[in-house]
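Q: My labmate handed me this sequence with no annotations at all. I'd like to see what the chain might look like in three dimensions before we decide whether it's worth expressing. Could you predict it?
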Amino acid sequence: MLLILCVDLDDDLGRKTGFETPVIGRESVEAAAVALATADPEDSDVNVCFQGIHLYDTIDDESVEVAVVTGTAAADVSANRKVGEEVDTVLASLSTGEDVRALVVTDGAQDESVLPVIRSRVPIDGVRRVVVRQAQDLESMYYTFKQVLADPETRGTILVPLGILLLIYPVAILAERIGLPGSALGFLSGLLGLYVLFRGLGLERAVDDVAERLRVGLFGGRVQIITTVVAAALVVVGGASGIETVGELLDPSPVESAAAFTYGAVQWAAAAGTVAALGRITDAYLEGSFRWRYLNAPFYVLAIAVVLHGVSAFFLSLPFATLSYLAATLTAGTLLGLASTLAFAVAEQRSAEQSGTAA
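A: Here is what I predict for the chain of 359 residues:
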């Protein structure tokens, strides 16, 4: 059996005509539709009722029943609940041994929000949306826009930039009236651009994560916060030193520029890497998660720094940077890395053996 369900989520039928709902049967639905059309000819639910009657009259290959179910004026969760109760009433009134399926008739996306409630009670064969041709999709657009405005995240993403854009013109006029320089408008435009870029790239979550780690580090006594700040400062100084070294060359080639920048910055970068590694090692020791292999990090940094210093000095043709000096720095860096790796691997193995013996 096919049950044609006409849905009036905001109960226009009950409020405007006084009909008791649910309304079951073709004659009763037609009387209710005429009463609603008489009370409010512009109500779209009139079309829903007549569409249900039309479907009832055109389907002749199976048994059919038509009914109107309504919600409440609030059109919220309570309305969905009331629609569910009226669907139960309609199903209980059907004296048939056949399986019942539903064809739902609505007038827009808002009424279709109740479909899960109906589907939980009876299988749905289809949905028919009835709209006036001259206003097609108007209610759906309104309902979608209403949902967008109800979402706090969407409001912040769409309305905030839109509001800032609308404020730029009056702010520019105000700035001109009070004699502010044009840079003020440029500053506002820059802020808007940064905000849009920030939201567009989804950086808010990354910033929140960094802030949370910083908060935990500050209150958890992490040395790594201090060493990270110091390392960042050393990197900045190293970059400035590298740029200054490049500036001392006369018409350098790209290779010479890269070698000069490396030569001027490598010692500062090595100091930054060593400080950062020591901070991480200290925190690991305090947390009880220290491993001997962690001590390789500062030695690896120093080994890489020695190699880069020798290579960059050689390409700059400095007086002391002979081929022998280059070979010595490459050898020293390699031996330093190998020695630290072997030494701390042996130390970690012996520590593990001692722990196993003690256990």
